[in-house]
Amino acid sequence: MKKIKNLLLLPVAMLIMFSCYQTGSDRDPDKPNIIIIYADDLGYGDVSSYGATEISTPNIDRIANAGIRFTNGYATSATCTPSRYALLVGEYPWRNKKAHILPGNAPLLLDTAKQSLASMLQEVGYKTAVTGKWHLGLGGEGLDWNGKILPGPNDVGFDYSYILASTNDRVPTVYVENDRVAGLDGTDKLEVSYARNFPGEPTGKDNPEMLKLHPSHGHNMSIHNGISRIGFMKGGKSALWIDEQMADTILARSQEFIIRNRENPFFLFYSLHQPHVPRTPHQRFVGLSGMGPRGDVILEADWCIGQLLNTLDSLGIADNTIVIFSSDNGPVLDDGYMDDANELTGDHKPAGPLRGGKYSLFEAGARVPFIVKWPKVIKSGISDALICQMDLMASLAVLTGAVSQGQDSRDVSKAFTGKSDFGRADLVIEATGRLAIRQGDWIMIPPHEGRPIVNQWVRNETGNSTEYQLFNIAEDIGQQNNLAEKYPDRVKSMEALLEEISGRIK
Question: Beta-strand (E) ranges in 109-150?
């Protein structure tokens, strides 16, 4: 940890000098580097280039000002694991029955025999890495965290991985570097359970006096760093992360990868943990936003992005590096901890003009910030093309000479590079197993059972209704006018299209 902390204080020139090895000068000048910066629970309205006025994100705006800002960019889903799955395999997540929000000890979700975005790029000469949040499972059933953790990211196309096994609110609260828990002392065995607590281990439910951040709902199991999590854990003390240092730690690993591979085409999946709960900014950012921890960690994430962009500039490789910024789903305020997110939001609107948020079939669930920068090729601008993160696989294949096997990924490379105003024709949107469909400017949500609000803490609307809902989002971005009765034929045709694509309607 000391090495990583100190690296962040050094200029990029010295980082290069201290990088652990050099690579050969065999770069293909026609192949761009690729970096996907993936935020966690960041809303359409949380970014100043998307209209936020109460918070400023100047480094995300640097990407937007030099690239294309998409107004109709989507994740596939309104929750994290499904969106990440779709991005990396180019397939709708509901085609895989296991692609839902995973516990921290879930087996690897990705099929090691199946092409991923990373393995596709490996095939055409890219060095590949994933840093930060993973949340796609690790190992197999009955995983022993004290040995090799197989299979994992390195078995689905990543040359290097330094990841959170799951999320920062779930155990185990350790980093996994390649196929082992980083820094684990073999004499202090790490044990993990999602079924029962280990004898004598404190929990947030039974020992609230040990907490510095209290849960609002759930999140009351094992305690680490004064925060209770989902799941139970014992041991592994040498490997436990410090939440407040997480942003610096992951950033440093990301910069090191870039520096080591500056002479090769590389792909980095830089997966941020902000602004997911628990929100624990470094002391440098505490209080800066005036919105409490949620606003502070957004500023922290923006700073990290600026540092990464500075690394590219200092190495002289920014011009031929594709930088893609997006989020895995829409915003949520109280998602399990008492951090005053609702109370301190003030006039800020995390969803911007959109309706809903995380867990929702309304637009704010999966419509997210989506920006693509590639100075060598792309001129700055704004695009209304309909695009999805799932399309990165087919589109990047075209731009790098690779061959995509992503079943549902579509080539929208011309939209990504500003050569076309048209993206994909339609898109199925998913939220906790429920489906809706967008076609052109129309969104149709079929009837779904269940409550209209997630719960008393997460106040986001689910989009559930006993009636069909139809919206023209070009004219009604806030989805206030249900046009289903006025246009029954359109409802019927979109229902048929959804059935054709998905084979089911839930």
Answer: 127-133
d(CA 132, CA 149): 17
Query: The domain containing residue 340 runs over which residues?
Result: 2-92+115-138+152-167+242-424
- 187 φψ region: left (φ > 0), alpha (ψ -120 to 50), beta (else): alpha
- Are 65 and 327 in contact by the 8 Å Cβ rule? The answer is no
Shared domain check, 364 and 408: yes
**Among 22-36, 316-330, 396-410, 488-502, where is mean pLDDT lowest?**
22-36
Element holding 307 (H helix, E strand) = helix 293-315
Q: Quick one: 266 and 160 in the same domain?
A: yes
User: What's the rounded Cα separation, in Å, for the pair 200 and 191?
Assistant: 14
What is the mean predicted confidence (pLDDT) over 245-270? 98
Q: How many angstroms separate the CA atoms of 490 and 483, rounded?
A: 10
Q: Are residues 224 and 309 in the same domain?
A: no
Instruction: Write the pLDDT tens digit of every residue in 119-138.
Output: 999 999 999 999 999 999 99
Across the chain, mean pLDDT equals 94
Rounded Cα–Cα distance for residues 140 and 497 (Å) = 37
Q: What is the DSSP letter of 185?
A: -
State the Cα–Cα distance between residues 86 and 81, nearest whole angstrom: 9
Rounded to whole angstroms, the Cα distance separating 350 from 353 reads 9
Provide CB contacts within 8 A for 286, sequence distance 6+: 296
Q: For residue 290, how many other CB atoms are within 10 A of its CB?
A: 12
Give dist(CA 493, CA 495) in Å, integer. Answer: 5
Structure tokens belonging to residue 97 = 């029955």
* pLDDT for 230 beyond 50: yes
Pick the last residue of a domain from 424, 459, 487.
Answer: 424
Which of 229, 248, 254 lies closest to 173, judged by CA? 229
pLDDT score for 10 = 53
Q: Which pLDDT tens digit goes with each residue over 416-457?
A: 999 999 999 999 999 999 999 999 999 999 999 999 999 999
